[in-house]
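worker-3 :: picked Winged helix DNA-binding domain-containing protein
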Amino acid sequence: MDVLSRRALNRATLERQLLLGRTGAPALEVVERLAGLQAQDPDPPYVGLWSRVTGFRHDDLTTLLYERRVVRATLYRGTQHLVSAADHRWLRPLLGPMLERWRKGAFGRATPGVDPAELAGSARDLLAGKVLTRPELGRALAERWPEADPVALARSVQGLLPVVHPPPDGTWGRRGPTPFALADDWLGTPPAAPTHGARELLLRYLAAFGPATVGDAQAWSGLTRLRAVADELRPRLAVFRDEEGAELLDLPHAPRPDPDTPAPVRFLAPLDNVLLGHADRRRLMGAEARRHVGVYPALLVDGFVRGLWEIRRAKGAATLTVRLFAPLTGAEEATVAEEGERLLHFAAAGAPELDLRLEAMS
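worker-3 :: tokens ->
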């Protein structure tokens, strides 16, 4: 078997993730190609698309949300994601058992004595044909279960029922109570589990994140028992090893660029899935970066995490601060400044004053 170096894995992943060069493809196509975007907060999917799509504008995603072609929902790992409406239809039933376990682990203690089936039924009745905010849903459910935490009751529904969070939730700059709607009401068709959903998921994962181990796919999706699925697909897959000997699976004709392919500077979205999509994250970052990534969004230089960034507003001014793990060359600093200026114009448009600072990590 061919051995793939860490740098080879880095370049393959960046190419699949559209981070070696921006694409002119429509935003909806990119959302599907990436198998969804991490969307714990409203703004990150916009930054994620900006970093990958040439000329991306805020309205390109906002319009998809209002047209119901993209939805925000609890999916992989029990976290919020944006996926296409078409993908949600089959993904939600596939991930359902995992989400029920997630609910029990996250909210079981806060909902003592609550039967999950009864909770799901009550929530479905309350949401039928309408949209309720999380506080409204929680208060209504607490009338039936007054001993339970209303917030935990409402959030439990995300693991028990196919619900989506309609706009303006999930749109740029949105802050406010999260709305809940039944997915079949919002999208017009009920979710339907495909016969070979786990196979499709693994193939989609490899297309977006490969080459990768089975453990990587499980860490990204939150699913277990994907080894059997991989074994079924093995005749259709290419097999490699990493430098430690771990087996890596991939699609035979997927791109695996030369390890010396140049990688442009990229400001990643907060919690970008490219950083969370593998159990072993060394293809993108070292040990120090792994301790910090997740608190602040990351900066890629030469394809690897070299710093963290944050935009703060004060008195109308917007300042992009980049904290570096190690010094950059003069050429690298200039490129970071150029890309950072573009980020400011996208993320802080309208601010009367824009500023960028490079600092050493304290």
